[in-house]
């Protein structure tokens, strides 16, 4: 019997970032130490169905699911693992010791999947339910930043019903945040989907309508004109550390979906000209925000800097950042002296360490 840990790598998923997930997973799979781990690949289709099987990655990519085995991750704390149905009964395909969700956006980065892992009592890479959910909701996230005196741009959150009830009042509230440009965003999305830069009231109205297509909660935020976009990678559980900062230099009007995934025009650099004091400030804020939101394992913390005043604003935290070898999260660690394979190994170790901490919690109260 092998004593290797059984590691489930989950990819795909019911989100706009399905393809990004496949690219990230391919990179992760290429460096897992198979002398140490038995890797079980688990794919989730765009429709949300779970599968295992030979050539899973390629079949998921080609959307050819016909020869794959439908699989179910069952939250049975005594026996977590991946199951299938055989002769009308649930049958265990493989137990799992730890899972690595290499997926981005809704149903994976928002706490939903993490909830399933908690129910299964299994170790998993990345933030828990709370950290995931808070970091994905841009509105709630900003309130946590405010409470911790971390600088952010002024904002207001509307819900869809408010917009439908009295749009004039909402436009006035939004315009009271700051002068144009204002940014409108769905609160719980990523990849710049549904985000607009608004230069006047006409744009603002359009932006609010666009954002409300994707979420019940809509954020309006003061916009910076051509800000510097600085990103820091954070790694750790109770004692997180920050990488060197990197910079994204978009060529579009802002860092749009097309630039992130289609045109590839934005430049990602891991060497910035920021002063050592500025670097220390940014790293300190990144770690403070990470801790305040109960992140674990990893996150990429993004900042906007006003070019005129050099004021730094924390923009958002991504709890499952892009993971291809050329993505910012691993690139920043590489620039900080941690190679891609060592980074993946560290993430697995952090997940196991967190499980040990979780297991210390008493679940029953008996008098
Ligand atoms: N307040 C702002 N001022 C200037 N640019 C912004 C502002 N908010 C967002 N942007 C631009 O939009 C991009 C996406 O916004 P962001 O809040 O990071 O959402 P996402 O979660 O989709 O990445 C940013 O990378 C930046 O280019
Ligand atoms: Mg962003």
TrEMBL record:
<keyword id="KW-0067">ATP-binding</keyword>
<keyword id="KW-0133">Cell shape</keyword>
<dbReference type="Pfam" id="PF01820">
    <property type="entry name" value="Dala_Dala_lig_N"/>
</dbReference>
<keyword id="KW-0464">Manganese</keyword>
<keyword id="KW-0460">Magnesium</keyword>
<dbReference type="Pfam" id="PF07478">
    <property type="entry name" value="Dala_Dala_lig_C"/>
</dbReference>
<dbReference type="InterPro" id="IPR011095">
    <property type="entry name" value="Dala_Dala_lig_C"/>
</dbReference>
<dbReference type="GO" id="GO:0071555">
    <property type="term" value="P:cell wall organization"/>
</dbReference>
<dbReference type="InterPro" id="IPR005905">
    <property type="entry name" value="D_ala_D_ala"/>
</dbReference>
<keyword id="KW-0961">Cell wall biogenesis/degradation</keyword>
<feature type="active site">
    <location>
        <position position="327"/>
    </location>
</feature>
<protein>
    <recommendedName>
        <fullName>D-alanine--D-alanine ligase</fullName>
        <ecNumber>6.3.2.4</ecNumber>
    </recommendedName>
</protein>
<dbReference type="GO" id="GO:0005829">
    <property type="term" value="C:cytosol"/>
</dbReference>
<keyword id="KW-0573">Peptidoglycan synthesis</keyword>
<feature type="active site">
    <location>
        <position position="17"/>
    </location>
</feature>
<comment type="function">
    <text>Cell wall formation.</text>
</comment>
<dbReference type="InterPro" id="IPR011761">
    <property type="entry name" value="ATP-grasp"/>
</dbReference>
<comment type="similarity">
    <text>Belongs to the D-alanine--D-alanine ligase family.</text>
</comment>
<dbReference type="InterPro" id="IPR000291">
    <property type="entry name" value="D-Ala_lig_Van_CS"/>
</dbReference>
<dbReference type="GO" id="GO:0046872">
    <property type="term" value="F:metal ion binding"/>
</dbReference>
<keyword id="KW-0963">Cytoplasm</keyword>
<dbReference type="GO" id="GO:0005524">
    <property type="term" value="F:ATP binding"/>
</dbReference>
<keyword id="KW-0436">Ligase</keyword>
<dbReference type="GO" id="GO:0009252">
    <property type="term" value="P:peptidoglycan biosynthetic process"/>
</dbReference>
<dbReference type="InterPro" id="IPR016185">
    <property type="entry name" value="PreATP-grasp_dom_sf"/>
</dbReference>
<feature type="binding site">
    <location>
        <position position="316"/>
    </location>
    <ligand>
        <name>Mg(2+) 2</name>
    </ligand>
</feature>
<feature type="binding site">
    <location>
        <position position="316"/>
    </location>
    <ligand>
        <name>Mg(2+) 1</name>
    </ligand>
</feature>
<feature type="binding site">
    <location>
        <position position="302"/>
    </location>
    <ligand>
        <name>Mg(2+) 1</name>
    </ligand>
</feature>
<feature type="domain" description="ATP-grasp">
    <location>
        <begin position="142"/>
        <end position="349"/>
    </location>
</feature>
<feature type="binding site">
    <location>
        <position position="318"/>
    </location>
    <ligand>
        <name>Mg(2+) 2</name>
    </ligand>
</feature>
<feature type="active site">
    <location>
        <position position="191"/>
    </location>
</feature>
<comment type="pathway">
    <text>Cell wall biogenesis; peptidoglycan biosynthesis.</text>
</comment>
<dbReference type="GO" id="GO:0008360">
    <property type="term" value="P:regulation of cell shape"/>
</dbReference>
<dbReference type="GO" id="GO:0008716">
    <property type="term" value="F:D-alanine-D-alanine ligase activity"/>
</dbReference>
<keyword id="KW-0547">Nucleotide-binding</keyword>
<dbReference type="InterPro" id="IPR013815">
    <property type="entry name" value="ATP_grasp_subdomain_1"/>
</dbReference>
<keyword id="KW-0479">Metal-binding</keyword>
<dbReference type="InterPro" id="IPR011127">
    <property type="entry name" value="Dala_Dala_lig_N"/>
</dbReference>
């Amino acid at each position: 019997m092998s004593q290797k840990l059984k590691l489930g790598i989950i990819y795909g998923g019911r989100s706009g970032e399905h393809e990004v997930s496949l690219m990230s997973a391919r990179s992760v799979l290429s460096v897992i130490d198979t002398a140490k781990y038995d890797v079980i690949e688990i794919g989730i289709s765009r429709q949300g169905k779970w599968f295992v099987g030979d050539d899973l990655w390629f079949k998921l990519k080609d959307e050819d699911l016909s020869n794959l085995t439908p699989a179910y991750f069952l939250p049975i704390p005594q026996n977590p693992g991946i199951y299938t149905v055989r002769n009308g009964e649930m049958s265990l395909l493989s137990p799992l010791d730890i899972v690595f969700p290499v997926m981005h956006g809704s149903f994976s980065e928002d706490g939903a999947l993490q909830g399933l892992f908690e129910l299964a009592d299994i170790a998993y890479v990345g933030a828990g339910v709370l950290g995931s959910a808070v970091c994905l909701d841009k509105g709630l996230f900003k309130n946590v930043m405010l409470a911790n005196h971390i600088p952010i741009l002024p904002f207001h959150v509307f819900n869809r019903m408010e917009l439908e009830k009295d749009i004039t009042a909402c436009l006035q509230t939004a315009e009271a945040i700051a002068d144009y440009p204002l940014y409108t965003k769905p609160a719980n999305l990523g990849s710049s989907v549904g985000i607009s830069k608004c230069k006047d009231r006409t744009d603002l109205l359009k932006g609010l309508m666009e954002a409300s297509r994707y979420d019940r909660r809509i954020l309006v935020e003061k916009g910076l004109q051509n800000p510097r976009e600085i990103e820091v990678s954070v790694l750790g559980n109770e004692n997180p550390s920050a990488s060197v900062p990197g910079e994204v230099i978009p060529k579009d009007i802002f860092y749009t979906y097309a630039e992130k995934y289609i045109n590839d025009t934005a430049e990602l650099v891991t060497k910035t000209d920021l002063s050592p004091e500025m670097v220390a400030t940014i790293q300190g804020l990144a770690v403070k925000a990470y801790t305040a939101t109960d992140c674990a394992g990893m996150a990429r913390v993004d900042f906007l800097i006003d070019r005129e005043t050099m004021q730094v604003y924390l923009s958002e935290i991504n709890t499952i950042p892009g993971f291809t070898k050329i993505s910012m999260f691993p690139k920043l660690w590489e620039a900080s002296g941690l190679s891609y394979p060592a980074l993946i190994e560290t993430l697995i170790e952090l997940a196991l360490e967190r499980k040990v901490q979780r297991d210390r919690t008493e679940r029953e109260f008996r008098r």
